[in-house]
Amino acid sequence: MLRHFDSLDFPRPTRDALALRFGQVSTLLDQGAVADAAHLFDTIRRDYESWSALVDLRFAQDTTSPTAKAERDHADALTPYVTAHEVALKRRLLEYPDPVAVAQEITPHTLELWRTDITTFDPRITGALEEEARLSGTYTALLAGAKLEIGDEQVNLSGLAPYAESTDRAVRREAEQVRWTFFERNAPQLDDLFDQMVRLRHGMAETLGYDSYIPLAYRRMRRVDYGPTDVARFRNDVLTHVVPLVHDILRRRCETMGWEVLYSWDEPLIDPHGNPRPAGGHDLLLNRAQTLFECMDGDLGPFFRQMREGGYLDLVNRPGKAGGGFCTSFPTVGMPFIFANFNGTQHDINVFTHEMGHAYQNWKSRSLPAVDLLWPTMDAAEINSMALEFLTWPHIDLMVEPGQGERYRQMHLISSLSFLPYGVCVDHFQHEVYARPTMTPAERHEVWRTLERRYLPWRNYGGLPHPTAGGRWQAQGHIYRSPFYYIDYALALCCAMQFWIRSRTDPQGAMAAYVDLCAQGGAQPFTRLVRSAGLQSPFQPGTLADVVRTARGILNT
Fold first, then answer.
1. 20 to 30 A Cα–Cα from 222, which one of 121, 137, 250, 409?
2. Are the C-beta atoms of 105 and 96 separated by less than 8 Å?
3. Directed axis angle between helix 347-364 and helix 507-520, to 10°?
4. How far is CA 258 from CA 5, 250, 261, 458, in A?
5. First to last CA, the chain
6. Measuring CA to CA, how many Å separate 109 from each of 88, 166, 376, 465, 529?
7. Which stretches within 465-525 are classed as H helix?
8. What is the residue-wise DSSP string for 375-436?
9. How far apart are CA 303 and CA 294, in angstroms?
């Protein structure tokens, strides 16, 4: 029977208790009991990850809670010690004198992941990992604590979204000004936080024998089947095929709206009649979503009902809540959790369907034999989330105001295409920053402006000082908290749009392939999962060009 979320309470681990449990794994290996050792090792990791996920979630739900922060600090301090134990045992299993016995218990892909993992840690970087986690929490709390005045209302950063999409151009400009005034006011702290992070990460890389943080970052992301050269080629494909299309879309929007100049605050207004809005508030949307998922093939409907009845959703924006959206899970329970910040805009639908894709995948793969396989690497995981955004299109009318379904689909396609140049800009920025870790904050801002002019040549901040000077990147939390986790969205989008193209002529086949991909979880690396779903790799020449050609034809651009 499914445990209700409110009843979850995992044992709080300590260093001594964990050392004892991991020591039992070593004892079993000493005795030649490989199967028992592998099972216990997996059980310990599932227990720890369930507790850690709940701690992170509770902090995100209320960053102002002293209790949640204290528990998060305890987890941050504990994590490097857990990693040390895990790496030692992974290394021992990889070097075990009877590899046949190990292979009978642990999948080849899991062993491939472990070979990567053991190159990312050494006890000498324990203190640096603790400090990295602390700095990440500081960034999260700083942004979550934003109190912004607009009109007669006080909002947080997520609450600015309805103003940013207003049909009133003056209101959109005010929202943009309020947003960047907050970042300008906090720029010294944000620069200092990031400077500390860059130097810390570069130092860890040097300690581990790398020339820069870049190869270490790829290994921390568990990218075992491609590298920076492949990513650079993909970025160039976006520059060649997507940037001109988005520029054409924005040029046509300018003409339609009668604007002489397109400013940054105009870009969020994708639909000239106003971006389609959700059909209603939180409760109505969840009821409609239930109907939507029951209309689709597979078992999405029953699964979503379990999430609702079990309390595995937190979707309402409120003060003190961390921004953004994510999906987490508790391996010992076998149930994922969706976190979001509904604000009454079309983003509510985008984020919800996106995170639901993550949740469905995790639920479908919950019975896989190893904790390493429950999630794919993030590049592949984002295919599951982004593909569901597109596969819900036939029923998306349920989620928007009456008569706005087609406008929503058009807007979603345009916003997806428009994301790609920004996504590769973020990735390129990180490669430049970590290749030259001694850059000053001012130099980093100039690098961003240079890349922004390359990938987003239409971007005009209308003289707003902070973003004009190159500070836009400071609002992108991934750059601070999850370095090099951003190209994953762009790569996955290229794959998700292939699902969309297939669904136009073979909806049942597309859905069946999607369900199968979700059920595989992380059983294979990114490129092999892509191939298994009948998709073409984003790194394959012509893949992105073909996707863009289809989209351009549909948009008549």
1. 137
2. no
3. 60
4. 51, 12, 9, 16
5. 52
6. 19, 48, 11, 49, 12
7. 465-468, 477-481, 487-503, 507-520
8. S--HHHHHHHHHHHHHHTGGGGGGGBSTT-HHHHHHHHHHHHHHHHHHHHHHHHHHHHHHHS
9. 10
Q: Are residues 320 and 341 in contact, defined by beta-carbon separation less than 8 angstroms? A: no
Backbone angles phi, psi at 464, to 5 degrees: -60, 120
Q: How many helices and strands, by DSSP H and E, does the chain display?
A: 24, 5
- The C-alpha angle 259, 260, 263, rounded to 5 degrees, equals 75
Contact 307, 359 (CB under 8 A): yes
Angle, vertex CA 141, rays to CA 380 and CA 162, nearest 5 = 75
**The tokens of 282 are what?**
């939180």
Angle at 262 (CA atoms; ends 496, 433), nearest 5 degrees: 60
Give helix 34-61 / helix 126-144 axis angle, nearest 10°: 30
User: Which amino acid, 204?
Assistant: M
Distance, CA of 430 to CA of 136 (rounded, Å): 16
Q: How far is CA 81 from the centre of its chain?
A: 25
Contact 21, 33 (CB under 8 A): no
- Sheet strand arrangement including 326-330: 313-316, 335-342, 326-330
Phi, then psi, of 148 in degrees rounded to 5: -115, 135
Total residues belonging to the chain: 557
Q: How far is CA 487 from the centre of its chain?
A: 10
Three-class SS state of 342 = strand
Give the integer Cα–Cα distance in Å for 195 and 200: 8
* Beta pairing class for 313-316 and 335-342: parallel
Question: Which pLDDT tens digits describe the chain residue by residue (557 residues)?
Answer: 789 999 999 999 999 999 999 999 999 999 999 999 999 999 999 999 999 999 999 999 999 999 999 999 999 999 999 999 999 999 999 999 999 999 999 999 999 999 999 999 999 999 999 999 999 999 999 999 999 999 889 999 999 999 999 999 999 999 999 999 999 999 999 999 999 999 999 999 999 999 999 999 999 999 999 999 999 999 999 999 999 999 999 999 999 999 999 999 999 999 988 999 999 999 999 999 999 999 997 799 999 999 999 999 999 999 999 988 999 999 999 999 999 999 898 899 999 999 999 999 999 999 999 999 999 999 999 999 999 999 999 999 999 999 999 999 999 999 999 999 999 999 999 999 999 999 999 999 999 999 999 999 999 999 999 999 999 999 999 999 999 999 999 999 999 999 999 999 999 999 999 999 999 999 999 999 999 999 999 999 999 999 999 999 999 86
What is the SS3 assignment for 278?
strand
Q: Which residue has the tokens 């050792």?
A: 37
Question: How deeply is 211 buried, as exposed, middle or buried, from its count of CB atoms within 10 A (0-12, 13-18, 19+)?
Answer: exposed
Q: Is 222 left (phi over 0), alpha (psi -120 to 50) or beta?
A: left
